[in-house]
Design a protein that fits this description.
The structure is a single chain. With 215 residues, this protein is α/β, with parallel strands linked by helices. The chain is 47% helix and 19% strand. The chain has helices at residues 16-26, 56-64, 83-91, 102-111, 125-133, 140-154, 169-184, 193-214, and strands at 5-9, 30-32, 36-37, 52-53, 68-74, 77-82, 95-99, 116-121, 162-165. The strands form two sheets. It has a five-stranded parallel β-sheet. A four-stranded mixed β-sheet has the order 4-3-6-5. A hairpin with a 2-residue loop joins strand 5 and strand 6. 24% of the residues are buried.
Length: 215
Amino acid sequence: MIPFPLILSSPSGGGKTTLARMLLQRRGDVGYSISCTTRAPRNGEQDGRDYHFLSRDEFAARRARGEFAESAEVHGNHYGTLKSEIERVFGTGRHVVMDIDIQGARQFVATYPESVLVFLLPPSAETLLGRLTGRQTESPEAVLRRLTGARDELAAVGSYQYVVVNDDLERAFTQVASIVDAETVRHRRVPLLEVRVRQLVDGLDREITRYRRAT
């Protein structure tokens, strides 16, 4: 098996993080890439387990050296995925699952063009609006940012290879898992495919020659 990155994107509240966690819990062929951030650790978070917590200067230096497959600024803090983390997971023979927004996905695919992109759609506009506006503690400005961000993300759905409607979590998980299974056996990801086919053809040719000589 040749591992690949699996990118899950959706509007805010679309379920990408939940489905990524389900894949990690239920599949042994999927691994987690530990992201970097400049925000402070929250209660219970550990460096190297939940995130790699970096200073702003260290983050900027790593980005300048081209160490990130993707990076972004979110609410004043920087987040990024190290190429070394992706290679670490690949080194264990597992696929890498990423739950990132469309901007991060575009950056990531530029570095890893073999990525498999899955867009998760909410089942209805009412459901999406409920998820986006349901936080009563947010200011109107924050809600407006979430609404406009979701609209921009939906406009990018055509650039994704697969679309899963997340109207039922278990069904959505089954569909995403099926995508992983199908992509695992895609022509270009079967190890030594040409060699194996050549060996089979050579074996058939020898047998065909033997039968022709006997007739």
